[in-house]
Amino acid sequence: MKEITTNDVLAADPDVQIIDVREAGELSTGMIEDAVHIPSGEVLERVGELDKSRRIIAVCHGGGRSGRVAEALTELGYNADTLVGGMSNWEAEGLPMVPPA
């Protein structure tokens, strides 16, 4: 697991899986386009929804929860990283967000 920057996310392979692990109530500010919402407490029970052959970037509000999720996924054999500073950093940099699906 690596801690990656917003620039790394923007430059990532288009086949990357971005999972937003925030709780539903935290999504009102928006999400990264094409991100899938899986709350951190549900990731391990929903791991079958993730493609093990694709890189995963986990995102939360500040980076703590997504770091734990990425670490757990890495231990399960996934190529998972976390976004440093989370969506707080993403929003502070004025990067594009979309409403939750």
TrEMBL record:
<dbReference type="InterPro" id="IPR036873">
    <property type="entry name" value="Rhodanese-like_dom_sf"/>
</dbReference>
<dbReference type="Pfam" id="PF00581">
    <property type="entry name" value="Rhodanese"/>
</dbReference>
<protein>
    <submittedName>
        <fullName>Rhodanese-like domain-containing protein</fullName>
    </submittedName>
</protein>
<dbReference type="InterPro" id="IPR001763">
    <property type="entry name" value="Rhodanese-like_dom"/>
</dbReference>
<dbReference type="InterPro" id="IPR050229">
    <property type="entry name" value="GlpE_sulfurtransferase"/>
</dbReference>
<feature type="domain" description="Rhodanese">
    <location>
        <begin position="12"/>
        <end position="99"/>
    </location>
</feature>
